[in-house]
Amino acid sequence: MPEAAGPLLELVRDAGDTLVTRMTAQALLRRKGRAGLAVVASAPAAADRNHRDGICTAIVDVLSILSSDLDQAAEVSEELARVADDHISLGARQLLHIPGEIDPVLRPEGRGAAPGPGPA
User: Fold this and answer.
1) Taking 80 as the threshold, does the pLDDT of residue 68 lie above it?
2) 41: exposed, middle or buried (Cβ count in 10 Å: 0-12, 13-18, 19+)
3) Residue 9: half-sphere exposure toward Cβ, Cα within 13 Å
4) Nearest alpha-carbon partner for 11 in 60, 55, 49
5) DSSP H stretches of helix in 1-48
6) How far apart (Å, rounded) are the C-alpha atoms in residues 54 and 37?
7) C-alpha torsion 22→73→52→39, nearest 10
8) What is the mean pLDDT of residues 93-104?
9) Is pLDDT of 7 > 60?
10) Is the pLDDT at 109 greater than 80, yes or no?
11) DSSP codes joined into one string, 101-114
C-alpha cells in the first residue's frame, strides 16, 4: 500500500534502535517486492553510519541465501535506479554494487554452484 511507505521508511531509519532498522529492512526484502526494495533503497540517504550498516547487513542476510532472490533484487534495483526520486535512484544504484559482493548459498543446478564432496 502506498500509504505504508512513509511509516516503513521511518522504521528503517529508527533513530533509537538499529535492530528495528535491520529487522524492518529484512522483512521488506523478504517480501520480494518493488515497494519494499524502494523503501530499503531510499533509507541510506538520510541514515547515519550505524543505520547504513544495519541496512547493508539486512541486505546481505536476506539476499545471500537464494541466488534467485539476489537476481530479482538486482533486476528491481536496475528499474529503481531510473526513477525520478533521487533518494530511491541513488540507493538503488548503490544496491546494484552489493550483489557482486554476495555469494548465495543456494543456486539452481548448473548455475555456477560448486559440486559437493564426492562419496566418502
Assistant:
1) yes
2) buried
3) 17
4) 55
5) 5-12, 18-30, 34-42
6) 15
7) -80
8) 81
9) yes
10) no
11) G---SB--TTSSPP
Nearest Cα neighbor of 101 from 68, 57, 43 is 57
More confident residue, 115 or 14: 14
Per-residue confidence (pLDDT) for residue 62, from 0 to 100 = 92
Cell of 26: 529484512
- Quick one: angle between helices 18-30 and 5-12, nearest 10? 130
**Cell numbers placing 70:** 539476489
Nearest to 37 by CA among 94, 97, 80: 80
SS3 66: strand
Q: Which residue has the cell 528495528?
A: 20
| pTM more than 0.85 | no
